[in-house]
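Lab meeting notes turned into a lecture example. A postdoc, R.K., suggested we walk through two folding results consecutively so the class can see how the record format repeats. The first protein's sequence and structure tokens come next.
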Amino acid sequence: MQTQVILMRPSVDLEELYLPFYKEWVESGEDMIPWVISRDPSDFAAMVQYLRDNEHAVNISEGWVPSTTYWLVTADVTSIVGAVNIRHRLNEKLLHSGGHIGYGVRPSARQRGFASALLGQALHKTKELGIDKALVVCDAINIASEKTIRKNGGIEDISYVEEDGNVIHRFWIET
């Protein structure tokens, strides 16, 4: 990867970069990961406020935990290439199949090292939240994500099988 990237908090100033990122995910038909990118951005300011509220545990749904979202932006601030959602703590569901960190790279930016950079930078943010050991998970069929997690120091734990039979590989990473 030659393009330098930085994590930035969601901001209304980044709307013109975010909308093509969002549109590409929607048009790809793929699951939108992390889940926060599936939020409808038509009221962009409200979406950004929703993400900020999640960080401070304001108006979060019962059973959810506070989380901080960052967008992975090219250093020249011309494109958003990925997103990460960092959960501040784990509940029972997250312990099995969600983990502390959910991340994704837009389809057109894959295979260029962005996922490793995204996870590496997210681990530093996780440490700043006081989390010394982060749980990062991926579907067993997602070999690329497993390689990214292992490259960032992931130590495999016991896998979890969801009700629908999907196998989740679980990894712990020292931050």
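The second example is placed directly after the first for contrast:
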Amino acid sequence: MTPTEFKYVLILAHFKHFGEASANCNVGQPTLSIAVKNLESALGIDLFERSQSSVCVAPLGEKISRQAQ
């Protein structure tokens, strides 16, 4: 778990879109996606609910986002 991973989670929670979040972070979408997935793996939970067309913050993701802020 790194500060950068938490930063990416906060920004993704704000934008709810991987492309917009990665552009805001000045990184490629795969970089942001891998960092978020690494944090989810380290915590053992899904922070986001993903579908083909959208990203929603999971209830535990919302709680962790608030704590990270």
